[in-house]
Amino acid sequence: MILDRGRFPLWLAIAVAVLAALAAWSFSVGRFPVAPGDALRVLWSALTGGESGFARNVEAVILQVRAPRLVAAMAVGAALAASGAAYQNLFKNPLVSPDILGVSAGCALGAGLAILYSLPVVAIQAFAFAGGLAAVALVVAIGSWVRGRDPILALILTGVVVGSLFGAGIALVKYLADPYNQLPAITFWLLGSFGGALPADLAVALPLIALGLAPLVLLRWRIDLLALSEDEARSLGLDVARLRLVVIVCATLVTASSVALAGVIGWVGLVIPHAARLLVGAAFARVLPLSLVLGAAFMLAVDTLCRTVAATEIPPGVATAFVGTPVFILLLAATFRR
Amino acid sequence: MSRRSGLALAAILLAAALPAPASRLFVDDAGRQVTLPDHIGRVYAAGPPASVFVFAIAPDKLIGWTRAFRANEKPWIPEKYADLPELGRLTGRGGTANVEVVLKAKPDLIVDVGSTAATFASLADRVQKQTGIPYILLDGRLAATPQQFERLGDLLGEPRAGRDLAAYWRSRVDPLLAKIATVPHDKRPEVYYARGPQGLVTGLRGSINVEMIDFLGARNVADGEPGGLAQVGFEQVVLWDPPVIVTNDPNFMRDVWRSPAWQSVTAVRKKRVYLSPHLPFGWFDYPPGPNRLVGLMWLAEILYPDLFRFDFAKEITQFHERFYHQAPTAAQVADLLGEKGVSPR
Fold it and tell me: Among partner residues A33, A195, A310, which is closest to B234 by beta-carbon distance?
């Protein structure tokens, strides 16, 4: 543990450096050819309010398309990894991912309904967000009603069951959808993409993600104690039930915002916290910051590949698994076989 | 001789050799030999394109629709046809039909028009085996449309209707193609087809969704890898910088003018984004059937504004009378053309 604690600042610094390097690289590559220096110059003149002197479409690509997309990928990566870490700690279970309480299924059903009723993009995002919150609220309500002796187990089981109920709802929406127009739209929305992330979308999603992440970061030492048994945590003066609710609300808020912004992206929330734990040990207070940075870096790297490899996009949920699994296995081997 | 034409020849010889007065042998476009009853009074169309074909040729033989008409679609076709029951789809795109319901409706023939790939051919075989009802699969490409009218007309015992529709189709489409053929290849316009509420789903090269673009000799900007529908990034659209965008999504049509990012695309700056009408059937890509005829003229005028100028009110009326058996009211035509972004001018 002492060794781990000493390594934490080092790993965090390395992760931040990697993220910065990735951001610089990602910002200078894309389908639209802009010289790396020019991309930064456009950004600089936009930030300082000067005239960049570049063509209008170059400016548009950099400021309206590429920069927001970078920010979206980093924010979603960080958000999913953080909520995954928080849930794995809360449920004391390494197999838990951010959608364990049905948030993704709720989001997907909300978005599917909005597409079925041919609503505009803003409404699709709002429905997705609301659907995610509704699903988790339902799970928490049922979970606390049935709680009994093992509230955690009740919560997880309820989450699984309500998640599959919402999953059936999605299947029904797809079945009812017009097969030529709405069904593809629903399918593509569920596959997810950062390709449509515009500044206006970020203006809504980023504050919500920040609002959810802030309590997790500020309370990380106390959340750490949730990994103890309930009696131990209580004896340390912790209001376990309330803290648990705070974690659930925060994780739900960030995950629902992420899904509303970029669709359902698996893998990140499940595996990035493990990667962080392999590097710095199990303590949530250290896993969370590192997960935030690793999640952002990983999602950014994957999305950069998604948008540059071919003229058509690779769904990020597919790419995360394809890119991430080998990386994770190598990391696992390096740690366990040492 | 290709395998298919070999089969066809064999089938013809076989048909000639067999003295079967009560039935005929038909070779469909997947090369399947199907024995048909002599008289076909009731037809189940397995998918929306087939529905449009059968409805145009022999509306009284159509036993139902794959999907009930919605309130805004109903007024466009005669009430007795609009009220036919909803039977669901039997095609490979996720069938929704209950086989028992189909059987109860007692069709003499099941018709599907669309892809003749092995998936659909084997599906047709299975359904035919399961139901005992002959199932024919016809090629749904635009180029094959007039022949399909003639063939289906003969099959359904309405040869004149089939021939008339084929002749009308040719009288509209052939002049288009002849005129377009005079346009040199480097003058052919580039088009981006925007689907989905964000306009970032498009049809790749060879997909049925962009068939009309290819058919009219224009260039789909997404002409790399062949495929179906795919998600593309904004940056790629800016890079393609299409001079014309066609969409089927009213939400995208509304949002595109407000989005600063889209302003860097030539088509948006020049206000050359067009919304394809969808009542009662789509004009552009769905369903991929003969309902696209007015859409072809509409797209031709968008793509080649110097070559074409149609009287759409007249074309719509003529088309609806022939294919949907009811002339639209003046108000309906105005509604169709009045939605923002529909009119090519």
Answer: A195
Across B134-141, average pLDDT: 93
Architecture of domain B3-170: 3-Layer(aba) Sandwich (3.40)
Q: How far apart are CA B324 and CA B76, in angstroms?
A: 8
Q: How many domains does chain A have?
A: 1
Give the global pTM. Answer: 0.83
Give residue limits of the domains in chain B.
Answer: 3-170, 183-338
The interface pTM score, or ipTM, of the predicted complex is 0.77
Q: What is the pLDDT of residues A222-247, one digit of tens each?
A: 888 888 887 888 888 888 888 989 99
Torsions phi, psi for B85 (to 5 deg): -70, 155
The reply to whether residue A198 touches residue B259, judged by beta carbons under 8 angstroms, is yes
> DSSP string of A271-319?
HHHHHHHHHH-S-HHHHHHHHHHHHHHHHHHHHHHHHHSSSBPPPHHHH
Which residue range is the domain that position A22 belongs to? Answer: 2-336
The CATH superfamily assigned to B183-338 is Nitrogenase molybdenum iron protein domain (3.40.50.1980)
Name the minimum distance, in Å, from the CA of B36 to any CA of chain A.
30
For range A110-123, the mean pLDDT: 90
In percent, the amount of chain A with pLDDT more than 70 equals 98
Which residues on chain B are in Cβ contact (under 8 Å) with A183?
94
Q: What's the pLDDT at B6?
A: 59
Burial (CB < 10 A; 0-12, 13-18, 19+), residue A210, is middle
